[in-house]
Structures are given as structure tokens and as C-alpha cells.
Write a structure and sequence with these properties.
With about 400 residues, this protein is mainly α. It has two domains: about 250 residues, Up-down Bundle (Rhopdopsin 7-helix transmembrane proteins); about 110 residues, Orthogonal Bundle (Arc Repressor Mutant, subunit A). Helices cover about 70% and strands about 0% of the residues. α9 packs antiparallel against α10. The longest helix is centred in the middle third of the chain and has 35 residues.
Length: about 400
């Protein structure tokens, strides 16, 4: 609900229903509705992330139309003449954007995301905002509603100013919670996998940041709207719709492209203290690593290694963290670096390329290989080989 109304006399003829800025909102809403429908029609059975992303797109489409009906001078008066109660019907969507975004992120990161009754508490702000709108707008006589919205006076009341401010803040809060979820997810990746570059979901982080940046921009325009002058406020408000249209569409296409490439982590291990590990279990891990060399397998994971050692996954994780002082990612890749060092020093393999060396050491990414090798050895693989030849 950002101030964006410009006099139609300055843009186009009064008889026109839409100006170019209104058309952007219409096209954006149509595109979001189309993408939401496409996601629902093509989703796999039980694909919760597709449903949540479709719901997020639907919410954004409703927001665009709600903004169009309120801030378009011509459309607003058409609606007021027809039925003033049609205004603000999309207001509930503003309060659903944050929870849906957080739910989408969680459903992409974790394969088993149960729907619990306590999640209904996230609907409380929408219910409260709806009750306030009913008391201060919908319960009024029709003539009073028309008078309140003909010149947008109702939009500048303390109630609406606070509601718009809190809505933008809610998107930022849920966005921050989503970033925290991504941070925690990456830590879990390092505890479970040796190769994490495919599963890091960086596109998801950029998507969340995009929503947060747009919300921050709109909040800034809203808070500064009455301080910076009507002309500049209008320009910034209109710009926010163009930014949202371009940026969010790009992020949506990215998310649709990458959502199904990785199934996400399984459910987190049950809470509570695991059984203390025993010295013979540590010896078993050490011997297995030296003799069987499981680190050479590119797809080795904590779960796979635990099964091969006949150890509970949580016990193995505890051994790695407390005895060896490393998470799974660091533990496996320390062996891989040692293997790479041997290959780099092998006189029979001096003609090998770095791609051959990293592949034979269990790595799958050159950037990861270089970064981990330099972190442990203090120099890049190429520098190490060159210095050892001297």
C-alpha cells in the first residue's frame, strides 16, 4: 500500500482506464497467477514446496491487484461506485507473504516437513488486521466508505500507516528467519556431507534477500513518503513496482529451475544426548578410513559411513566432533587433501592435470578442491606441486 497515485492528466487522458504504470501491475499479477497455476498443474505428488511457492505467487498477485484498485484514481472510483467493500479484500495477502516465504524455504531444505496445528498462529496478524479493517472501514455506511477512500484520506490515518509499517516489518522478520534457517541448514550439510556445493541452495538465499530488499525499499518509501514531497514519493513508489516486477520474476524463474534438483535434508536427528562413544568405536573409524578409504567416494555421506561402520549416525557424528575435532565435511576432506598431496608428489603422475588429481582424491569441484587444499596446506595445489619439484 505504497503511495503511487499520479494525476492521470499528467500521464494520459482522463478517459483511459489504465496508464502505463497500472499496466505493469496488471501484467505482473497475470504473470504471477500464470506461474502459480503452472506450478500447481505440474507439481509432483506430495510436493509441498511447489504448493507453498504457488501460494506465495498467488499472494503477490493479489497484492498487485489490491494496490491497483486502491491507487489507480480511475479504478478506485469505479470500485467505489460499484461496491466500496471490494477495496481491501486483498489486504489479508500482505500478512501471508512472510509465513509463506519461510514455509517455502523450510520445505525446500527439508524433505520431511510436517504441518503442525501450531503453524496456524502465523495467521493471527492477518486476522487482527482484518478485524481492525472491519471496525474502521467495513462496518461504516457505504457513503462513509466512499468519502473515506475518494481522496485516499483513510490511507493516511494512523491505523493504516501503522498496519503498512508492521506488514513490511513482518516480511523482513520472516526473511531474517529464513536466512537463519539457511545458515543452520548449511551447518547440517557440513555435518552430513563431504561435497556440499550442489546442495548449498545459494539461489534460495538470493531469493530471500530479494524479497527482503523489496520490502525494505517499500518500507523506506512508506516512511519517507510524507517527508520527501509528493512528486518524489510518487516516483519512488512507482519504481518499487517496476523493481518488484523485474527482480521477483527473475528469482521466481530461478527457484522454479532449481527447486527439484535436490530433495533436501531428511528430518533432523531426535533431540537428547546420544550414548557416549567407546574407544573401540574410535579405533574402528580410524582403521576403516585408513584401510577402506571411503573418502575416495564422491557421494560419501555421514549416513553411508555410519552404516558401513555399523554405528548409529549420531554416535559417529559425536566421535568426529569430539574426538577428531571436525565436522564430517572437514573430516573427509582432510583425508582427501592428504591423498591429493601424495598424487601431486608421485613422479609417475606428474603429467596428470589438476582435474585428474581432484577426481582421484574424491573431490567433485575444482573450486572446492583449491579452497580446501589451500586452507589445510597454506598454498594452492599448483603452488604445492611446483615447490615440491624444486
Amino acid at each position: 500500500m505504497i503511495k503511487r497515485e499520479l494525476s492521470l492528466n499528467t500521464l494520459t487522458h482522463d478517459s483511459l482506464l489504465f496508464n502505463i504504470h497500472d499496466l505493469v501491475l496488471v501484467l505482473a499479477a497475470a504473470q504471477f497467477l500464470l506461474l502459480a497455476g503452472l506450478l500447481v498443474a505440474t507439481r509432483r505428488k506430495g510436493d509441498l514446496s511447489a504448493c507453498l511457492l504457488a501460494a506465495t505467487l498467488l499472494v503477490i498477485a493479489v497484492q498487485e491487484l489490491d494496490s491497483l484498485f486502491i491507487w489507480s484514481h480511475t479504478l478506485r472510483h469505479v470500485v467505489l461506485d460499484w461496491h466500496p467493500d471490494l477495496l481491501f479484500l486483498g489486504s489479508f495477502s500482505y500478512w501471508l507473504q512472510g509465513p509463506l516465504l519461510y514455509g517455502f524455504v523450510a520445505s525446500v531444505l527439508y524433505k520431511q516437513l510436517p504441518l503442525r496445528k501450531r503453524y496456524a498462529w502465523h495467521l493471527l496478524p492477518a486476522l487482527v488486521a482484518g478485524a481492525l479493517l472491519y471496525v474502521h472501514y467495513y462496518s461504516l455506511p457505504s457513503a462513509a466508505k466512499v468519502a473515506a477512500m475518494s481522496d485516499l484520506g483513510f490511507m493516511w490515518t494512523p491505523l493504516m500507516t501503522r498496519l503498512v509499517t508492521v506488514w513490511h516489518l513482518s516480511v523482513l522478520v520472516y526473511g531474517g528467519a529464513s536466512l537463519w534457517l539457511l545458515w543452520r541448514y548449511r551447518r547440517q550439510l557440513l555435518e552430513r556431507y563431504a561435497n556440499v556445493e550442489v546442495s548449498e541452495r545459494r539461489w534460495l538465499m538470493w531469493m530471500v534477500l530479494g524479497f527482503m530488499l523489496i520490502a525494505a525499499w517499500q518500507l523506506m518509501v512508506h516512511l519517507l513518503g510524507q517527508r520527501i514531497g509528493e512528486s518524489l514519493s510518487n516516483i519512488l513508489g512507482i519504481a518499487s513496482h517496476y523493481i518488484a516486477f523485474i527482480f521477483v520474476n527473475a528469482l521466481v524463474f530461478i527457484s522454479i529451475r532449481y527447486t527439484h534438483l535436490f530433495g533436501g535434508l531428511g528430518a533432523e536427528p531426535a533431540s537428547g544426548e546420544p550414548e557416549p562413544y567407546k574407544p573401540e568405536q574410535v579405533a574402528r573409524v580410524d582403521e576403516y578410513m585408513r584401510v577402506q578409504q571411503p573418502y575416495l567416494l564422491a557421494d560419501i555421506s555421514l549416513d553411508t559411513l555410519a552404516k558401513r561402520l555399523s554405528l548409529p549416525e549420531r554416535t559417529l557424528s559425536r566421535i568426529l566432533n569430539q574426538h577428531f575435532g571436525k565436522n564430517f565435511f572437514e573430516f573427509i576432506n582432510s583425508y582427501r587433501v592428504e591423498q591429493a598431496k601424495q598424487l601431486l608428489l608421485d613422479s609417475d603422475k606428474q603429467s596428470w592435470t589438476m582435474l585428474q588429481v581432484l577426481a582421484e582424491s574424491g573431490f567433485t569441484s575444482k573450486s572446492t578442491f583449491n579452497a580446501i587444499f589451500k586452507k589445510q596446506v597454506g598454498k594452492t595445489p599448483s603452488q604445492y606441486r611446483k615447490e615440491q619439484r624444486l
